[in-house]
Amino acid sequence: MIGAGAGILKVENVKVNSEEGEIVVNAPDTKNTKAPEMKSRRPRGPLLPMLGTESDATVKKKPAPKTPPKAAMPPQIIQFPEDQKVRAGESVELFGKVTGTQPITCTWMKFRKQIQESENIKVENSETGSKLTILAARQEHCGCYRLLVENKLGSRQAQVNLTVVDKPDPPAGTPCASDIRSSSLTLSWYGSSYDGGSAVQSYSVEIWDSVDKTWKELATCRSTSFNVQELLPDREYKFRVRAINVYGTSEPSQESELTAVGEKPEEPKDELEVSDDDEKETEIDYRTVTVNTEQKVSDLYDIEERLGSGKFGQVFRLVEKKTGKIWAGKFFKAYSAKEKENIRQEISIMNCLHHPKLVQCVDAFEEKANIVMVLEM
């Protein structure tokens, strides 16, 4: 059947004469009324497909939805390590993952100075982050590392503290013999200027005498003083001390002066009477020092030339503003709470070691990452 506007045409009502190129359509009989006959002719020849115009054949595609441009963003540090603690000699990798509008520059800093690559330190930057590698960590690599990332819209930074743990430094200074008797003496010394990142657990005391002339381990103790017994009066002795923590034993301290035991000769009494003023001048002003966190060392002392430096920090000549007295200022770098606590313990020990031959601590200050001990010259 063929659909036609007013009704349905049956196939029997349609005749195709292919030879004549003629189609005859008889309209259906409606109410017995004879419908007219319709004819359609075409030119002779094969039937050809109907072709539309080029515009009719073109398929119009829907335009692709426009993707809005990404908004420009300042840099962000989305991944960064926590504080690190490694053994001396181990490798360290500090990686910061960043995001934001490119280009982003990444800079590693330490003590406010840009870290330069060297044989042991490598820096790798990419669009997604920056990695700082220390191939063999040593004590000098301890400190606060800061990653600074920047683009045209702003900057961000993050920091991490690195602690390299190792055996301690040797006990500072020279051991001092005091309270010398017929066969004994008391040996005192300072703690290590750096404990290797782990608290010093004990000290090893070594002895040398003028007869055997070899160093031997005498004893192990926990405090910074030891009473040496059973010494002989026919020889002289020297002492040195090593510090011990969980990571090992330090190198030896400096050697003490040669010391002999025996009864001290009675000092002749001076016939002249000593006035009270003279006695006061010879008295040593021992102080119990607490760390001052309210003032800076520069508030009370003029900081002059540097006298020396070492692994612990630096020593400067100080002039007390109030009295004009000359002191030595020992400036420690202390980034972690553990480092600060170790220095406070050393100050507490010095408060207990009151002896004319021992250097006295007279003041102490804490300023951010610095702790300053004011010592006798």
UniProtKB/TrEMBL annotation:
InterPro entries to which the protein is assigned, alphabetical: FN3_dom, FN3_sf, Ig-like_dom, Ig-like_dom_sf, Ig-like_fold, Ig_I-set, Ig_sub, Kinase-like_dom_sf
SUPFAM superfamilies: Fibronectin type III, Immunoglobulin, Protein kinase-like (PK-like)
Protein origin, superkingdom: Eukaryota
Entry keyword Repeat: yes
GO biological process: tonic smooth muscle contraction
Domain Ig-like: 75-163
Binding site residues for ATP: K330
Region (Disordered): 25-74, 250-279
Gene Ontology CC annotation, any one: cytoplasm
Biased composition (Basic and acidic residues): 31-40
Protein name: Myosin light chain kinase
Species, as recorded: Spermophilus dauricus (Daurian ground squirrel)
